[in-house]
Amino acid sequence: MDPSGTSPESLTMNSPALKPALQVRPQRAGVLLPLPLGGAYDYILDSDAPRGTLVDVPLGPRRYIGAVWRPPDGTVDESKLKTAAPLPGEPRLPESLCNFIDWVSRYTLTPPGLVLALALRVPQAFAAEVSRVGYVRGTAMPPRMTPARERVLEVAGDGMARSAAALAEEANASPAVVRGLIDAGALAEVALPEFSPFACPDPGFATSTLNLEQEAAARTLCGAVASQRFSAALLDGVTGSGKTETYFAAVAEALRRGRQTLILLPEIALTVQFLDRFAERFGCRPAEWHSDLSPKERRRTWRAVMKGEARVVVGARSALFLPFPELGLIVVDEEHEQAYKQEEGAIYHARDMAVVRARIENCPVVLASATPSLETYVNASTGRYKWLKLPRRHGAAVMPEIRLIDLRHARAEPGTWLSQPLREALATTLAAGEQAMLFLNRRGYAPLTLCEACGHKMTCSQCSAWLVEHRYHRKLICHHCGLDTALPQSCPQCHTQASFIACGPGVERVAEEFAAVFPHARMAIASSDTMHGPAETQAAIRAMTKHEIDVVIGTQIVAKGHHFPQLTLVGVVDADLGGFDGDIRARERTFQLLHQVSGRAGRAEKPGLVLIQTRNPDDAVMKALASGDRDAFYEQERVYRERAHAPPFGRLAAIVLSGADGERVRDCGRMLAKAAPAGRGVKVWGPTPAFYQVLRGRTRERLLVQAERHVDIQAYLRAWLARAQCPNAVRLTVDVDPVSFF
Ligand code: ADP
Ligand code: ZN
Questions:
Q1: Could you say which DSSP state residue 141 is in?
Q2: Which residue CA neighbors atom 19 of ligand 1 most closely?
């Protein structure tokens, strides 16, 4: 399997044979701990250990697992140093992962220990393996035979090791009978593996015949995998064009060459369907990595990745920090998704960091999307990335027809959200026995509740945000902090009884209207409030696929990735509701989202129709959607961004200050702005109150650094922050390449 002839273990675990003989003398080394410290601390090791070796060390009253990181700095007297204890099996992070951690730390200005923590987030992964024992037929004969004993020995006679309980059950004997045979030496103990090992995906299990464009793209990707060198490619294809099918060819190539593959997906909800699809192609499921795993599964997967037993891992962004010893391919599916940005703790963009890891690993990275981020689009069009295009849907499916409905003329009665043309299209679709999807990117019943008598708006007590009415939960909920309250009997301001009115639509309200117009249609609401967790989402998707539902009304939870063969109509209830105001990527994001939603229609033989309700039919985004001219939109967007010196033509970093005491936060913001060094090609904006000025009771102020492309923005930030001391009560976070401007 491994063409180089080295077993995966030898690359990560220090097998005894490879250790230099008799080098057991105390050494010092800098050990990095998974904590927000400035750097590594010196410890005494009882033998020479290479970088990445994991050790157990004391710090204050606690013990931590850390990694040997750098040569000792030698400033602390040897007698004061504490000793690091080795771990069973001497696990070691691959050198490339250590380099990646350092790189991410420098780029994002995150303390290296916090980045290391992303790689070590595996409870008990380093404890000695609890050995499970099984039993086979031993050499001795029991002094006395009974029918039960005979049955047990007969079962054990096949040579397969079984646990005592399994033996008893299979032989229909009591545990005491088995125990007696063990004591008599008639059953012999053997060690069982901790878990059944990961199955190895079979590259030739069920190959599909690729069409011409897919074949050409696959050939390029396979060549890149075979070269075992860094390269980046944009796999650019409309939804349903077979991007997945195509990069599976590259995964197969990596498998054949004995290399590991990492496939990143933006959301867990997409992972579940993906695992089955992978199994259909490769004969078994890949290893998975996301927040929904139990600690036991995590431990098992982490170790299997490190030992090279897990050949393909599918996961969310944190999978980027797994200890692959022989990574040969990284795929970032739906590369434009904002979910790739980690917004808390270590703030990083998993798509960008995937490219970095690929460069460090010297392997190719494939970014797949129907609507790439402008950054990736520019990289592809300037030739920095290979640009692999799949312009057609596979097979009979054609792209849907997209029409705009001008809400300024087509609006029905006030307080309703489905225009006459949309209602007619729904009726036609239902009459034909086909399915429809209504899309609205807003959870709950209504985004705003106000008092009809005095105009008082119901807002969150912790956040500067409206409370959203949820009829399904019978509550007003803050979408920022989760705070919920019952709708009060009377207005908190003017005390008028039952004076509240709901303003604007959420999916629940659209569903109410739909049910009134089409009382016999089978309808489901799909949003994160009505579906709890991936399993419920999965059940709803299955019901839709099996046509147990006629119409699904949902938020972006249903907009992405899913394939419903009978779905021929998509209605976008309010296209102007991107919710991305004040964001340099507002147009791009609206385009991407609506394009994704539209892509749900007509994925099989029947042609699809998409109706987009808007008050701005002349807007560039709407026009590009209706004409299907995606690249015209990108070219225009590129010009806008270039003129504004916005990414990727300029660089941005945000500094967000937050704290319970608003005045101190504002003071700190002013102090920081004053301390900003003058720099060529650098401008500092702010401080200004953040879009949501208060969140969870904490006041937020933002500063924005805008720099020309050639500027080392990290160096600038470091120099700046070294000059300014924030009080402890104010938290400062640095967000390099921000994607959220709230
Ligand atoms: P994308 O990832 O671009 O949205 P998919 O890879 O999911 O596209 O393909 C869309 C559908 O077409 C899937 O059901 C897939 O199985 C099918 N398909 C794509 N290419 C082929 C092919 N070469 N042979 C058979 N089926 C294909
Ligand atoms: Zn709130």
A1: P
A2: 242
